[in-house]
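Dear colleague,

Thank you for sharing your sequence with our group. We've completed the structure prediction you requested, and as agreed, I am returning the results in plain text so they can be pasted directly into your records. Please verify that the sequence below matches your submission; if there's any discrepancy, let me know and we will rerun it promptly.
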Amino acid sequence: MAPKNDTLALRQVNKNAGAYRQPGSLPAAGLRVRVVIPRARRGSPPSRLRSLRRARRHRSAGERRLHDCTWRERAAAHCKNTRNALDGLHASARLSPWLANGSLSARQVALELLRFEREETRNESTGWFRQELLWREFFHWRACVDGVRLFASDGIGRHRAPCCFELRAFARWCTGDTDHPLVNALMRQLVQTGWMSNRGRQIAASCLVNELGLDWRYGAAFFEMHLVDYDVASNYGNWQHIAGVGCDPRGGRHFNLEKQAEIFDPDGEFNRAWGGACARYSRATWSMRPIGPLSSAEGCVSQPPAIRRRFRSVDGA
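Please find the predicted structure tokens below.
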């Protein structure tokens, strides 16, 4: 048992990545809490020493990534020009996995950005980069204020958006088999890699909410299951924003999917890379079981009942 004068720190651990979340972030389904002793003492159990080494390893990796994207790649100096690229893994700063698990803090990134502006350059892109960090902080503070309303179908607006749940439509969206090739490509990218760009997440969310007319929380829960940089407040806050049940007085966002494809994938390169135009199901005899490399998404078919039970107490049903 640890001595009383040891400082005990609670960290929320992402069950997929085994990494540490920032203290104070809201708990989510699938997360477990682990007690970590920051300073190893003689005679400490080996499991605690392994946890300590793992924490340091994640933090070191995050700090290396922060240094590389700031000074070697100079991502902040041109992020405004690349932030909407659909192949976001190589176009963005790629700091979100470490920000989500607490290995990096928004304050730490902001201080590094300030040093970059003093020593290298300050332009519109660096200002945009700082604004994205502020958006992240806003969603965290908003989640603290909203509490369980973050997971309510009508969000904080107390206005329940008209929606339904149709299992086949949801499963088609999950497996990338909709009538919109760009959405198909994005969903297949997510399932196979655990990553999707910021622009891609908005397009996929708009499809589920506006084209399919489904409850936005089912999409948020699916993102929670697959994203390597999943963050409770940012994920549900952005989905509320698209669905029009968040704090934006202008309402939701309805994207023209064909126009989005023309702007952000004019040559169809992203679509071809992820097979967005290749239908995997016959519309006449549609199967509930995904085929081929998308078989990892087959769990989405069994998720809706669990999701309904999860949100029932929030809706007061």
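Summary note from our side: The beta strands are 9-13, 32-36.

Kind regards,
the structure core
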